[in-house]
Structures are given as structure tokens and as C-alpha cells.
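Raw record, unedited: MoaD/ThiS family protein
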Amino acid sequence: MRIHYFAAARAAAGVSEEAAGEHATLELVLADACQRHPELEPILPRCSFLVDGMRAELDASLAGAERVDVLPPFAGG
């Protein structure tokens, strides 16, 4: 599985994507990402998440998932 970071999450992680390993839930994969990139921790509570293109909550199962997207709030005008 791969985790993709966007906007402020990308800046905090220092990468746009990376291998995420195998985790049972979205919450666990994000906790693992915070271990590697502590700067993510304050950003994640404001983020939305997609698992294989579908909106997901922290308790979402990652069984068979291939991609997680981390989407901070975007500003536009």
C-alpha cells in the first residue's frame, strides 16, 4: 500500500508519497506515518482521508487497500 500526502501534509512529511506497509486500519497507518514524520501529528486532525478513492474515517479497514490519500483543508479564491 502507498500513502500519498497533499499540501501541508506533503510539506510536513517531506515526501509526496511513500510505502505504508500493512496495517489493519487507517488509524494505525497514520500512527505509523507520524512515527516517521512527527511533523504530521498536528496536521492530521484537520485532514480528510481517502482509501482507494473513497472517503474514510479513522476506523476504516485497510484490508486489500492499495492507496491512502491525506488531504488537509485547501484554501482557494
